[in-house]
Amino acid sequence: MEDNRKVLIKEFFANLKVEVTQAEYSKVWPGWRDMDYIPGYNKFYFICDGEGWLKIGDEEYYPKRGQMFLMPEGVMQSYSTINSNTFTKYWCHFTAKIGDLNLFDIIKVQDYIEVKDYVYVENLFKKMISSGKGYGIASVLKENSALLELIIYFIENSTVERKVPVKSESLMRLKAITDYIEKKLKENITIEELAQVVHLHPNYLIRFFRKHLGMPPIHYINRRRIEEAKRLIIASSDETLADISSKVGINDIYYFSKLFKEYTGFSPTQFKKMVNSQPGRIQNT
């Protein structure tokens, strides 16, 4: 089931939704202080100047210029000034959700990073702030795209560990459903079957699946079938398309061809010709 786990992770993270709730550049006031509170949102602090104190969970910090801190949702935090030379910083409050889960409940990253590309990160904050003051769809998209780039930058420059959210009923259900789909991919799979696997009403199962993976179960099943069909075409030049279609649980070759083109942009015959025309053939990956 290792391949299925990788597929689930890919689909899961593809459904990440981010939203900026507030972003600013400011110098904190002398009374800037809050102790032992748990926010319902994530925060980035990008320190430009000054001094102060932060506590994230059990760890205490005295941030310096060029450091970028992540203060995650649901984690106890404190902050305070320590003298008259208070922080000047870019900051934002944001959500980063996959279904009903916070991104940073799924992966564990460092509390802060040393920013090597100061101007790059500063420009992303400037873009986020200026876009947040605009109106219309384009402004919202620009604001959230800047946030997404900041999240990516932070993750790429941080040590990342994947948490195992064993207490997440949602993830346990998703894994049970996708494991069942992989096991039964060659067979006819109904929504009622999947609902029975996780003891949900079929209508609720569809909503649940769409919420967490961004698509209904049938769409996911069809995608997996076409991905498996592509793998089989690449792996062997001898099997007929009818054989491959049957192996991925689609017994109607005409429907298989229609579905294949819908998901890849090519008919199975075109895809097979492309594969066979490659020097040395494409290796299965």
UniProtKB/TrEMBL annotation:
Task: Cite the entry's keywords alphabetically.
Answer: DNA-binding, Transcription, Transcription regulation
A Gene Ontology MF term for this entry?
DNA-binding transcription factor activity
In this protein, which residues make up the domain named HTH araC/xylS-type?
175-274
* SUPFAM superfamilies associated with the record: Homeodomain-like, Regulatory protein AraC
Q: Which InterPro entries match?
A: AraC-bd, Homeodomain-like_sf, HTH-like, HTH_AraC, HTH_AraC-typ_CS
Entry keyword annotation includes rRNA processing: no
> Can you name this protein?
HTH araC/xylS-type domain-containing protein
Organism of origin is Clostridium thermosuccinogenes
